[in-house]
Amino acid sequence: MTKTLEDLCSLIDQFFPFSIQEDWDNSGLQIGNLKERLKNLAVCLDVNTGVIEFAYKKGANLIISHHPLLFNSVKKIDFSSSYGKILKELIVKKISVISLHTNLDKCLRTCFSLVNDLWIKKCRPIVQKDLTNKYKLAVFVPSGYVEEVKDAVFSVINRYSLNYTDVSFSSKGVGTFTPSKEANPFKGNYGARELVNEERIEFLVDLEKLSEVINAVYKVHPYEEPAFDVYPLKNESLSSAFGFGLFGDVEIKGLSLKEVENILKEKLNIKTLRKVGSSVKEVKSIAICPGSGASLLEDVAKIAPSIYITGDLKYHDAQKAEELNLTVYDVGHFSMENLLMRDFSIYLQGIFNKNNYDSNIYFFDRSKDFFINC
Questions:
Q1: Are residues 216 and 283 in the same domain?
Q2: What is the pLDDT of residue 133?
Q3: Distances (CA, A) of 192 to 222, 223, 237, 372
Q4: Does residue 212 have a pLDDT over 50?
Q5: What CATH number is associated with residue 41?
Q6: Residue 253 in contact with residue 137, Cβ under 8 Å?
Q7: N or C, which end of the chain is more exposed by having fewer CB within 10 Å?
Q8: DSSP letter string over 54-121?
């Protein structure tokens, strides 16, 4: 099915809303035309000439990066500079760029494989920034039409959910109504109170999809005037919270620091780790922030995990971590964010499969850390 870059942005926005990015960030379209038809796409951490050549050879007309290509103000474009060469190559090869930066950072639970590798359960953000606009829709349906209404709602909301589909709750009761002369009731007679066996079916719906779901209900509901309630949800639930980093309890017993270190080295493809703080006998809870997580040290201290895994710690950050009695692993800026983008590409492929996208997604696996262990 033919899709545009604009269609793709709208789809991504359902899972990683661009509206939740930080004010200083520049996630979204960097260069290109959203009205253009999407062919194939490449996913990477940073945009460089190697990524552009890779995308071009794969027949991709879009690159999705984590770090925005355009971040600081651009006052001139010199094609002889490294930055100018990148922009020129994108224009010449007709490749667009979309970046997912802090909006992806605030949705780590959605697709970060390290959560499962370290047996972390019931993840929630270290610092909660935003809540999604979630609503509960309760529809009252007469017996015999319940499954038809469920199928109509699921046909909409299942397109935007990968881990769990067909989610609802039902309870039975008795509805009453008295038709007027002008009414055209599904059952019952003018002036006589009608009692109907009904089910109350509850669904969780995003604000952006609420109108589409209600329209779907109207199309299949047998009543002339379907009865339904809509409730805004303000609870800070595990499934509705966006925020930086994540933390949770470890699902298995007796996880040691040595085991964690071996997992990190294997999954992140690194040979060494930097560690701050005293050792713990058993890892019972873990906090994670890919990239640079020094700014969250005080927030991490409030939740007191067994260990905190992040990157880019400076000397005084390490000093602060020790003063806060934290055990912190610094794995560098590159390793976890590169893994995150690989995981994102896999997650996006799943979304494509459920939404009839026939474009291929290629992860650029030749990115490298600029730092070398000597």
A1: no
A2: 67
A3: 19, 17, 44, 83
A4: yes
A5: 3.40.1390.30
A6: no
A7: C
A8: HHHHTTEEEEEESS-S--S------TTSHHHHHHHHHHHTT-EEEE--HHHHTTHHHH-THHHHTTEE
Quick one: what percent of the chain has pLDDT higher than 90?
78
Q: How many domains does the chain have?
A: 3
Are residue 208 and residue 248 in the same domain, yes or no? no
Q: Are residues 321 and 257 in the same domain?
A: yes
Least Cα distance to 101 among 7, 35, 23 occurs for 23
| Assigned domain for 374 exists | no
Residues 210 and 250 grouped into a single domain = no
Pull the structure tokens for residue 80.
């002889």
Q: What angle do CA 300, 372, 362 make, to 5 degrees?
A: 80
CA distances from 50 to 34, 174, 246, 267, 297 (A): 23, 65, 32, 24, 35
| Owner of token pair 């880019």 | 312
Output the six-digit token pair for 120: 């972390």
The answer as to whether 182 is a domain residue is: yes
153 and 186 in a single domain? The answer is: yes
Place of tokens 């950050």: 317
Give the CA distances from residue 196 to residues 147, 171, 188, 256, in Å, rounded to whole numbers and listed in that order.
17, 14, 9, 60
Distance CA 355, CA 349 (A): 10
pLDDT for the residue numbered 132: 54
Q: Which residue range(s) make up the domain with 264?
A: 108-130+243-331
- The residues pairing with 310 across neighbouring beta strands, listed in sequence order, are 330
